[in-house]
Structure prediction request, 612 residues.
Amino acid sequence: MSLLVVGSLALDTIETPFGKEEYTLGGSATFITTAASYFTDNIRLVGVVGYDFPKKEIDFLRSKKIDISGLEISKDEKTFHWHGKYDFDLNTRETITTDLNAFEHFNPVISEKFKNSDYVCLGNIHPGLQKKVIEQIDKPKLIMIDTMNFWIDGTPDELKETLTLVDLIVINDSEARDLSKEFNLVSAAKKIMELGPRIIIIKKGEHGALLFTENTIFSAPAFPLEQVFDPTGAGDTFAGGFMGWISKTENLSDDNLKLAVIYGSTMASLAVEKFSLDGIRDLDKKTIMNRFDEFIKLTHFETVSI
Amino acid sequence: MSLLVVGSLALDTIETPFGKEEYTLGGSATFITTAASYFTDNIRLVGVVGYDFPKKEIDFLRSKKIDISGLEISKDEKTFHWHGKYDFDLNTRETITTDLNAFEHFNPVISEKFKNSDYVCLGNIHPGLQKKVIEQIDKPKLIMIDTMNFWIDGTPDELKETLTLVDLIVINDSEARDLSKEFNLVSAAKKIMELGPRIIIIKKGEHGALLFTENTIFSAPAFPLEQVFDPTGAGDTFAGGFMGWISKTENLSDDNLKLAVIYGSTMASLAVEKFSLDGIRDLDKKTIMNRFDEFIKLTHFETVSI
Prediction:
């Protein structure tokens, strides 16, 4: 079924202990749509890029069968550029520069043909814009949003208004603590649920992710990789794998949400093995299913009683 | 089969945000044997306490069918006393006092009837003492040790000698990084395996535990509790549940080691819900299996391909 993705497209400069790449394709909507494209063909992208956005990357998005009719190309401004540098352990990063460029005035308008989207995935943008998108969609089956400390602390009222309209929020552990004012993550999830979303996913980086619904808590590990190359986009890739699986299966049961978390984790683990988007640019089903099978081995145990 | 446990017995004073208890039963051997007692009846304890050790706690250990003929009671000295205070988030703790007392001169001698022990679990004591115990046992089937930064940094050569003699080491993530000089935990486990143990368990506190064998990596979550009351002894309780299950089943396959990790995690999650040893003093099989079943729900997912 149809999946609408709204978020940033960027050209990133990334420095990790393993090297540096300049003006490489990035942005939340890029990672989300690319990851989701391995699960469903009906993906609609809404975003903005500048006049410098490479033609080959437009072709790349098309090659993933992503509908880019909602992609605005600014004639006056450059593409959003983010320059980040990771610490030796890849756990902390410093932003060197953020040039919003065309993204500064991003004002997502949903075209008539996108208004009937079944599933909606809103990358980490201003909560007011997220709300504006949501109000343009006819009865979607599931709305997921991402957010960050910048909005939690900077625009708390607008974020809380948006939260009343969404089904699912994906945030990391420090953001969950910040938003809920609870240190314990189970308590944090409960508090956030009271704000609106009935499904909460808390990402814990190298420690995996927790899924909370009314009746379920599910814990998925991150894949224990010996070499993480570049964590950029891991969270968005997770969201894309998750929403791709949900759009493909159209099943919102707790059991299928768990499976979506595993597919999200599978895609994220493949993403961080290479620079930027390279880890998920050109995958086949066999590679994805091999990693999925590794997740089974990593987590499953026999049930034998004492 | 028989499980030999060597470690400390203590009277702890513990302060958490939820209260304070003074001179309550603690020590690694106490938590290990108590946790293991729910899986097997053939447990042998070697340790030392002082003349002030309460008679009722001797009776408690006996009530768990633990063979305490190897428990020395000093006539001249008091019992090891540790006083610790936890921070508001329970993730960091400060040691207020450590009175080693009788434990200072602990010199474990293994009696003739304990020398044939099948499984050996050595709590966090001087690696030289651990080695001395190992040399007294006839062909055990599995030797597990715990250790800590104090020995990793303070007696590295003796620890490395001991590591060549053991099958399994249980350490936490910061200790694994310290011992291996590797930040990545997969790399750390590989390095530690080269030092001797063929099985490595890395505990990650609220993030669970990782099991590494030659052919397997297994990730077990910690149980997502809303209220952790007192983390004291969680690691030892994990070790006790693990070794209790191994002693009961006598199966060292990767699949059974995974199950042992889950039973260890099950016991640890019950331990931290109450003060000190109270969480595991008086359990029944039903309570343990209910928590075990929660671990299944927490981790299992259906296998459906893309």
